């Protein structure tokens, strides 16, 4: 990865009638990862993508010079293990899940890793992070939700910055290279403050797909991050 910061556009906000073209367009615009928000109408009150969509889009997740672009799957589903396995088979590169959606968090982590994927845990805005004391050494990514999961287009919850700061300290203390990703209300105007709190990966949905020029938005985000 040549960029210090990772931009992971969420296809939840893409044009579903042109999903393949949208992925290629946003990759060519400079996306580092492609983010799948997987919702089951059970853990969250919405229903989105299954593994077949991931499998169909996986062959399109390449840059113009044929470098693969990681597929970043955020599971908002309960239970976790079977659907995680299905996404691993379908081509996911990173799979993150909510600890309260699994009866055995460590087992779910190990199952995802054994399927050949990197693994992450996701924390909702009002959810404690205590479980990280038990499993942080097993993780490749920690995802902090800065909105309540279930719908795109929500506003950033400001108190999330303090949680990001706390998680960053835990990552530094464990000494392992773990991505700290933030999802919810990320836009050009606030991405720098989120990075300053400790995040290095940013999920953006409507802030990118809601604009005509994806490359311009991603470029503005990178400029804000380094400015």
Can you put this structure into words, describing what you see?
This protein is of the alpha/beta class. The chain has one domain: Aldolase class I (TIM Barrel, Alpha-Beta Barrel), CATH 3.20.20. The chain contains nine helices and eight strands. The protein has an eight-stranded parallel sheet. 45% of the residues are buried.
How is this structure best summarized?
The chain has 227 residues and is an alpha/beta fold. It is built from nine helices and eight strands.
Fraction of residues in helix: 25-40%
| Topology-level CATH name | TIM Barrel
Structural domain tally: 1
Report the span from N to C terminus.
Answer: 20 Å
**Shape category:** globular
CATH superfamily: Aldolase class I
Q: Which structural class should the secondary elements be placed in? A: alpha/beta
Gyration radius (Cα, Å) is 16 Å
Low-confidence stretches: none
**What is the overall number of helices?**
9
Oligomer: single chain
Got a strand count?
8
CATH class descriptor? Alpha Beta
The overall pLDDT average reads: 95
Q: How does the SSE layout of this entry go?
A:
Layout: E1 6-9, H1 19-28, E2 34-39, H2 51-57, E3 71-76, H3 81-90, E4 94-97, H4 105-114, E5 118-123, H5 132-135, E6 141-145, H6 160-174, E7 179-183, H7 191-197, E8 201-204, H8 206-209, H9 214-226
Parallel strand pairs: 1-8, 2-3, 3-4, 4-5, 5-6, 6-7, 7-8
Helix pairs in contact: 2-3
